[in-house]
């Protein structure tokens, strides 16, 4: 259980840092974030909404308990990343842009899998 817990928190912490930093810039509508999103054709008003939504999702994943909210948060973050990945591909950004997305998908998957392993182990010991 200790190994599972360590892997979960390390991977989830990296995920939170990776997505959280960009989310704060989105939430405050930093010029770089607005330029990045409007460059691929989205309106500027979507930037703070996505930033706040990602921050709330990350909080839901990091706070212990609330399993149903966690499931929704994982799904929301996955779909946000998938939509951004698709948008960049459709816009014509090449494979040099894909590495960050692939890392994000791996982090989300590992965090989700280890969250469920931790849940199973916790309920098995009770």
TrEMBL record:
Annotated InterPro entries: DoxX (IPR032808), UCP030066 (IPR016944)
Mode of membrane association: Multi-pass membrane protein
Keywords: Membrane, Transmembrane, Transmembrane helix
The keyword Transmembrane helix is annotated on this UniProt entry: yes
Pfam families named in the record: DoxX_2
The organism of origin for this protein: Dyadobacter soli
Principal localisation: membrane
A GO CC annotation given for this chain: membrane
Annotated coiled-coil segments of the chain: none
Record localization: Membrane
Protein name: DoxX-like family protein
Repressor listed as a keyword: no
């Amino acid at each position: 259980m200790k190994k599972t817990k360590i892997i979960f928190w390390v991977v989830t912490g990296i995920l939170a840092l990776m997505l959280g930093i960009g989310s704060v810039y989105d939430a405050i509508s930093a010029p770089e974030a607005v330029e990045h999103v409007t460059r691929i054709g989205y309106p500027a008003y979507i930037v703070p909404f996505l930033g706040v939504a990602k921050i709330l999702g990350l909080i839901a994943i990091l706070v212990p308990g609330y399993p149903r909210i966690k499931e929704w948060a994982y799904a929301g973050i996955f779909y946000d990343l998938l939509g951004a990945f698709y948008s960049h591909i459709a816009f014509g950004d090449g494979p040099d842009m894909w590495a960050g997305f692939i890392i994000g998908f791996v982090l989300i998957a590992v965090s989700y899998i280890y969250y469920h392993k931790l849940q199973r182990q916790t309920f098995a010991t009770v």
